[in-house]
# Entry
Amino acid sequence: MNIQNYINGEFVNPVNGGFIDNYNPANGEIYGQIPNSSLEDIELAYNSAKSAFKQWSNTALEERSRILIRISELLEANLERFALAESKDNGKPLSLAKQIDIPRAASNFRFFGNAITQFASESHESVGLNAVNFTVRQPLGVVGCISPWNLPLYLFTWKIAPAIAAGNCVVAKPSEVTPMTAYLLGEICTEAGLPNGVLNIVHGLGTTTGQAIVEHPHIKAISFTGGTATGAHIARVAAPMFKKLSLELGGKNPNIIFADCDYDKMLETTVRSSFANQGQICLCGSRIFVEETIYERFKADFVQKVKQLKVGHPSDNSTNIGALVSKPHLEKVEGYIKIAEDEGGKVLCGGLEVTVPNYENGYYLQPTVIEVEDNSCRINQEEVFGPVVTIMSFKTDKEALSLANDVKYGLSATLWTNNLNRTMQFSQQLQTGIVWVNTWMMRDLRTPFGGVKASGVGREGGFEALRFFTEAKNICIKY
Ligand code: NDP
# Structure
């Protein structure tokens, strides 16, 4: 299936006519083509967004809210179609796309459709000065949203929904590896009555199409989710133009397990937090630290459970682990397994490609558990972003905390304990943007989402996202 850009409410070919291949990771075959957009396409998208801005930014909040909620309803009504497209494009199990990705994309629109009607700003009476100060929060204008391939529609809409709810117009680019659901979203937006030009979706390569969005002198803000190296590059390009930047980057998240936890719940959740979406979630707990007293028990139980996970075709209902997103990514992940072994890591299970009958050219890999002894090894310091976790034991709270923080990333951490003091000590001292205690990836869309250190700057979610997509202006009236 060939797809087009969505500009000014219409589906159009790229100006220069170039297309690139889109692969199905489950069988390794090319199944469509996507526009290889260039500067000219970004200019068209920008002009369309700019023309729509005046009217959209003055559209009553109730009307904006109504349209966003309508988009959400249409996504729900088209759940099956979107889930199939997401699974085919990304390789993730169809069941996961149905249960998580598409419902969450719909929730993003519903949430921000409601949130914008509750978004208030402050006023300050300057007592004794006969003056009153109040703040207005104005939309920025045209903003850029760039998202990755791991949770394609989920993360694409996580940016777009608050941006348009706040009155901005958007030039957006999904990952070139997973463009399909972003393409389908255009149809839904038109059907929901989103005015032409409010959302423009342009497809193409990061280094050209994405770069053109970041470099565009009049695109006021960039909301980016992706790798840390790309984020650093974007910051370098955007900073001299004083663009607002929200950067959600990589992670190397610790999963810290104490002997006093609810063991069964921890074990079951740890299998999920390690391998959900083939381990391709920025929040996956890829470094598992286990208290020494239960280390051998955990090791045996965990490996046994991981061996039971079924690697298979994404549309097979019994599949737990689908295909990795692309061949280069599969090779990158395999490269890390080799690096880990070279550095003394012991592969306890997995590590090999899987041949799925009838889909021999798909990008399948066994879920892999590696035992390591030193947190400074590359497999514990660098983001793999695949179905690979390491396990290592610790003796004391102090040691566990130090291991958890001894990494350049700081996105999330998971802690398993029933000790209240320990919970509070760790929650305060873990250098991450998110701490989960006795759970994983439980999301409430009102909460701030983002990381510290090399995991990024800025927060998404709730009113934080609406603050990012607006400029606060102070007005002082003397009477
Ligand atoms: P990349 O950084 O490679 O790409 C992310 C997006 O940026 C893609 O749309 C990509 O386009 C685009 N891009 C690439 N180069 C540029 C550029 N020079 N200018 C503008 N845009 C560009 O990340 P991946 O897609 O490989 O995603 C995986 C990464 O995302 C992991 O590191 C993961 O941790 C991180 N991530 C972070 C999350 C968070 O919330 N912190 C959540 C999910 C993922 P294209 O794909 O077409 O090259």
User: Anything to note?
Assistant: The first helix runs from residue 39 to 57. The pocket of NDP is lined by residues 146-150, 155, 173, 175-177, 205-207, 210-211, 214, 225-227, 230, 233-234, 248-251, 282, 383, 385, 411, 451, 455-456 (CB under 6 Å). The first strand starts at residue 5 and ends at 7. The chain has a mean pLDDT of 98.
